[in-house]
Write a structure and sequence with these properties.
Number of strands of chain B: 4
CATH architecture of chain B: 3-Layer(aba) Sandwich
CATH architecture of chain A: 2-Layer Sandwich
CATH class of chain A: Alpha Beta
Helix content of chain B: 40-55%
Strand content of chain B: 5-15%
Strand order of the largest sheet of chain A: 2-3-1-4
Largest sheet of chain A: 4 strands, antiparallel
Number of strands of chain A: 4
Structural class of chain B: alpha/beta
CATH topology of chain B: Rossmann fold
Number of helices of chain B: 6
Distance between the termini of chain B: 5 Å
Number of domains of chain A: 1
Oligomer: heterodimer
Largest sheet of chain B: 4 strands, parallel
CATH topology of chain A: Alpha-Beta Plaits
Shape of chain B: globular
Order of helices and strands of chain B: EHEHHHEHEH
Radius of gyration of chain B: 16 Å
Structural class of chain A: alpha+beta
CATH class of chain B: Alpha Beta
Radius of gyration of chain A: 22 Å
Number of domains of chain B: 1
Number of helices of chain A: 4
Strand order of the largest sheet of chain B: 2-1-3-4
Largest interface: A-B, 41 and 49 residues
Order of helices and strands of chain A: EHEEHEHH
Helix content of chain A: 25-40%
Amino acid sequence: MSAHEDGTITKLVVISSDSVLPIDAALEVYESEIEITIKETCFGTMVTGPEDAVNKVVEKVVALDKNHIFVKERGFPPGDDRRCRAGRGGGPRPGFHFLRNEIGMLPIIGKALDDYDNNVPLEKIVRPEKLKVSILKDIIESELTR
Amino acid sequence: MTKVFIYPTNSLILSDLIERFGHTPLAMMGQVHEKITTIGIDSPPLNITPEDPKHGLKYAAVEVPAGVRGRMALVGPLIDEAEAAIIVDDAAISFGCMGCARTNELTKFLARDKGIPVLELVYPYSDAEGKEFVYKISDFLKSLPKE
């Protein structure tokens, strides 16, 4: 990710691992003794601070289970009034629905990354064909004549 | 490292995979960060200021709704900067901040029209599809120059 003018960055660390819990990631960050702000969340942690320090810590956390811990940048720092639920009267924060939807897919992606690392060959996927209009017409007509 | 534009522009999966395979993702989050940390006129709780639809005029005509132009003020510069793009269609989750259908169409059109390498996929919902998704992205990213 490109460097920002103000030198700070916020990263979301999303954990989709069977062996690592969000608290493990948070402890890893505490143990690193680097001066950054972290916030433990239901899906992982949010890390904010100087870019180099954040990248170093995130690298350490990802190393706990590299194919099942995912990282993306976040625009707003943790607790920003425009996003934080505390000041908005509760409810999901903007952007959470998308994140939650993608979190649902992470086990699939993690498994695929494991296969990729183990050089498992890709099998051809047979997708069901679209229904032909003539068959649909037949179904409708058979229903109408019942 | 190649700068890869992603659609959906705030995707966790795409942003992570691109960094994982050694390139730079061009995502909305970086733009938002720049926007909220740059000193200037800010209108909390709104992220878009009256200036933004004017910047969006570079990408959409004046009769296009201000919402599209405001969004393009953030997305457009990313496409300008892009050297490659990954577009994941069929996202049932394209609502909320990503929810403007016309902006989404314009974004995808501009990325395709730019003449850069573009990979188009759909979101995976099974293990086999997930594998194909990751393998296709890794092959695409490997084909891009690292320097």
